[in-house]
Design brief:
With 145 residues, this protein is α+β, with helices and mostly antiparallel strands. It has helices at 27-42, 48-52, 127-140; strands at 2-3, 6-11, 57-58, 61-68, 77-87, 91-100, 103-113, 115-116, 121-122. The two termini are 22 Å apart.
């Protein structure tokens, strides 16, 4: 795992694949969400349970796009990189790119909204989190090159 840009490596397991021997379609979303969760924990230093309980917030995903560029098979060594493409008042747009041996296997775009958990309404991203997010974005770019 590296922090700038944030990368997570994993091996594609047999259980993540369908009978054809390639990744089961929804697993790409699952992998991307796992990277986003790890990024919150490692880079923002706010595990999701802390966000939910101590900060009485949340960051539900309200939009996603997933494009597969090559099949993923059992035993593929997958490197997933997270970029923060945009930060709005209450929202953030992330891009997770999964690669095998330097070749793009998938890209997933996730848009999440900061919420007040008690009211379940959008709220401005808290300033302390926003500062960390902006620093990460400045350090890593947006991944659109």
């Amino acid at each position: 795992m590296s922090r700038a840009p944030f990368r997570v490596r994993r091996r594609v397991g047999w259980g993540a694949c369908d009978p054809a021997g390639i990744i089961y379609t929804p697993r790409g979303v699952e992998f991307a969400v796992e990277v986003l969760e790890a990024w919150w924990r490692e880079v923002l230093e706010v595990p999701w349970p802390v966000l939910l309980d101590a900060l009485q917030g949340g960051s539900p995903i309200v939009h996603l796009e997933l494009d597969y560029r090559r099949p993923l098979r059992p035993e593929d060594e997958l490197t997933m990189t997270l970029w923060l493409e945009a930060i709005g008042g209450a929202s953030a747009r992330y891009r997770v790119r999964g690669e095998v041996a330097g070749e793009t296997a998938f890209e997933c775009v996730l848009v999440a909204v900061s919420i007040d958990r008690a009211r379940f309404r959008a709220r401005r991203i808290p300033d302390a989190l926003r500062a960390r997010m902006e620093r990460y974005r400045a350090d890593c770019g947006t991944g659109n090159s």
